[in-house]
Amino acid sequence: MGIWEELISLAVEGYNAGSLGISAAIADQEGNILAKGRNQLSDNLESCNQIKMTSVAHAEINALHNLVPERQRDQELVLYTTVEPCPMCLGAVAMSQIRKIVVGSADPYAGSIRLLKKDPYLTKKGISTVFEQGRIEEVCFALHYMSLKRYVRPGHVIFDQIKERYPAYTKKLDKLFESAELPLDKPLDGLHLMKVLEQD
User: Could you point out which of 51, 75, 128, 149 has its C-alpha 20 to 30 Å from the C-alpha of 69?
Assistant: First the structure.
């Protein structure tokens, strides 16, 4: 199973458990996953995480926490995350030795990659970033958007910013919600999600 397949499966687990559908993994240069984590803000399910049910139980924090000590000084590792890291998670990555982040989908509200160019301390860290596009971006965004629809009150500013950043994706997903092809009140099947997203 590739990195993104693993991350999507883990994000679906988080979504179905009642947390946000966000996951992260740390891999070596060959693509071998060394540590992973998922958002576990609102569930106590047995998973890959040790940090659960607290405000810091974010995917990236759990992935960093799960990395074995002997690899924690390795600057060749890459953090993959389904959603652009928030300020807390970006700070945690900066404090680690990881110097590359690969992002599945942008978060125009809480995403903080822009700080890498604005904050002198973060700029000195030399962290490079890559934003995925195409199918990976759409699936990662869908999991995030579905989570927000359940987790955040309607009318929150986050939805305006997300619709501005991803107008086509939000329109497509909103139609799927309305048609009940992708119900928000039932467990999510990752394969079904990918199948319905392929319908253009």
Answer: 128
Residue 46 among the catalytic residues? no
**What is the residue whose two structure tokens read 């759990």?**
62
Q: Which residue has the tokens 């934003």?
A: 131
Q: How is 102-139 classified by DSSP, letter by letter?
A: EEEE--TTT--TTHHHH-HHHHHHT-EEEE--HHHHHH
| Amino acid at residue number 167 | P
d(CA 200, CA 190): 18
Tally the C-alpha atoms within 13 A of residue 135's C-alpha that lie toward its C-beta.
11
Can you give the length of the chain in residues?
A: 200
Supply the pTM of this predicted model: 0.96
- pLDDT 10s digits, 133-179: 999 999 999 999 999 999 999 999 999 999 999 999 999 999 999 99
Summarised one tens digit per residue, pLDDT across range 94-105 is: 999 999 999 999
